[in-house]
Design a protein that fits this description.
Blueprint lengths: L3 H9 L3 H23 L2 H18 L9 H23 L26 H19 L3 H11 L5 H8 L3 H24 L3
Helix pairs in contact: 1-2, 2-3, 2-4, 3-4, 4-7, 5-8, 6-8, 7-8
């Protein structure tokens, strides 16, 4: 079994099998990172393909100063943010998926009495409100918050991905939480 530096060296030497292994080992990480930012599994999968194409073409530039996963996170975040910017320019930004985080759903507990369409609609609206509030955060806050709360990265790992200090990441996440509280408070105060 190859470690990350051996894997990168094998890819640099043109070993196709090594590149396939990299994709197999890191595909879920890349797709989930993209999905956390773009809110669509289909778009996240498309962006993940772009990420691995970028990795293939720029593997010579990887010096090993950071972990391979950090490099992949950085590329995935950049590709996802470019996707969001491009879609905003074209006014084609997609609505938020009801099942955005897969296993990390934000559903409220349901009664054992069965399916309740009113509760389902309420849960869907809450999800939309939360994801709209996250999307409205300034870009650095949104990225730091998403990597922390959705990808469960440590502040140190986020600092590496975003090329910031740990204290800057702590500040970004703190401000993101405050901004989300304000946005959601206003949203629910209006009765939306």
């Amino acid at each position: 079994m190859m470690n990350d530096s051996e894997l990168i060296n094998a890819i640099k030497n043109g070993e196709e099998q090594a590149f396939r292994r990299l994709v197999d080992d890191y595909q879920l990480l890349v797709v989930n990172t993209c999905k956390g930012l773009v809110h669509s599994i289909e778009d996240a999968q498309d962006i993940a393909q772009e990420v691995f194409i970028e990795v293939y073409h720029s593997v010579e530039k990887f010096r090993g100063d950071s972990k391979l996963s950090t490099w992949l996170y950085r590329i995935a975040v950049n590709k996802s943010l470019n996707f969001i910017r491009d879609n905003k320019r074209r006014n084609l930004f997609q609505s938020i998926s009801g099942n955005l985080f897969g296993t990390k759903e934000l559903d409220l507990p349901t009664n054992d009495t069965g399916y309740r369409p009113d509760k389902e609609a309420e849960n869907n609206q809450r999800r939309k409100n939360i994801f709209k509030a996250i999307d409205d955060l300034p870009e650095n806050q949104r990225v730091a918050f998403t990597l922390s709360k959705i990808e469960d990265l440590s502040y140190r790992e986020i600092a590496e991905v975003m090329s910031l200090s740990v204290s800057s990441v702590e500040s970004l996440i703190h401000r993101a939480k405050l901004n989300l509280q304000k946005k959601l408070y206003k949203c629910y105060k209006k009765g939306i």
